[in-house]
Amino acid sequence: MRPTGARHAAAHPNGRNPGDEESPGRSRRYGPSSSIPVYTGRQVWNKQRKQEELLDVHAVTRGHITKLKWIPASQWVWSEKLVHEPIVDIETFERAEALLSAEERPATERKPRRTPRPYVLRGLLYCCVCTRRMEGSWNNGRPHYRCTFPT
Questions:
Q1: What is the pLDDT of residue 98?
Q2: For the purposes of burial, counting CB atoms within 10 Å of the CB of 125, is it exposed (0-12), middle (13-18) or buried (19 or more)?
Q3: Dihedrals φ, ψ of 139, to 5°?
């Protein structure tokens, strides 16, 4: 008994798992859902895939970074047999998934942190290496801007 739409590993050609397709963006921080499928007593594979992205498209020699991308839950592979005693049954798990994936929740907008120091270029500077937004830091009585991404 597997959740609706889930496939078994043996059903894939050559024993390979799918997941090469581009997965849609995820709004949650910890993946496609906050619930954990292992609570159903089954093993789940093929939830994430590694994708290498260039740091700079115009300067390939700068290298790349490997990122984990979530695969849609419909492409996850569930074990046929129980691997341990289930905490919740599959029907309860699916109902919780439906509630957590509801799109009716309003998006919350982040408010910038309050600081007594004036950062005139706040939100305007981007790192030339990783293209992330730079943050302000106060050094020697003056504002300085830096990228906090470890390279």
A1: 79
A2: middle
A3: -130, 130
